[in-house]
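The protein record filed here.
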Amino acid sequence: MSLSPPYNQLSYYTFGTPNGIKPALLLEELGLKYDSHSVNIMKNEQKEQWFLDINPNGRIPALKDGDLRVFESGAIMLYVADLYDKEKKFTYEHGSELYYEMISWLMFQMGGLGPMQGQANHFRLMAPVYDEYGMKRYIDETKRLISVLEIRLSKADWLAGDKYTIADMASWPWVKGAGSVEIDLSEYPGVEKWIKRIAERPATEKAKAACGAMPDDQMKEMMAGMKAKMDARKETKKDEL
């Protein structure tokens, strides 16, 4: 007879991106023992067959717990919270009003903030052409989504209820990097304080390290270089197709 979860044999496959950091925040906050495996997306390792056997979508992150696999960052966070956060430190009782408030904010990030800011990052930093329409569309939508967070965080410390939960962990790695697409976070004081509040937690730095995330100053320097390269395409009218 096979064992039932939790298996307590956690292997986390990740990289230093916002989605890669999200579940690591929970793993570190819970103090769980896990093996962290870097999947270098710059070398397309996520498309290799060994990883596709874990996540058929070929995207980081992914989790294995014994023989059980979980992919998609939100699903991983729900799995870890359900199976390992027995004291409900970072979640709420399943079926409660606050549980569904938390899930609503989690899905807000999964279906809105992450995809939209990801597109903003693509058009502003990485697209092979200078596309002013694409930049404006997705940067404006990211601003709108951050303003939704501001409505809540201008009145409360956390997104769901009165404690730090997986809802906050899901949005934080994305929002903190919004300056890379010239979004001025000082326009959102509640969000700005929330970003700082989470950054100061000891588990946050551990999670970033476990994912191999760049130091913030190094990341800013890299992003500045990418923006300058994109701006040069506008000036020279030369694209890289």
User: Anything to note?
Assistant: The domain at 10-84 is CATH 3.40.30.10 (Glutaredoxin).
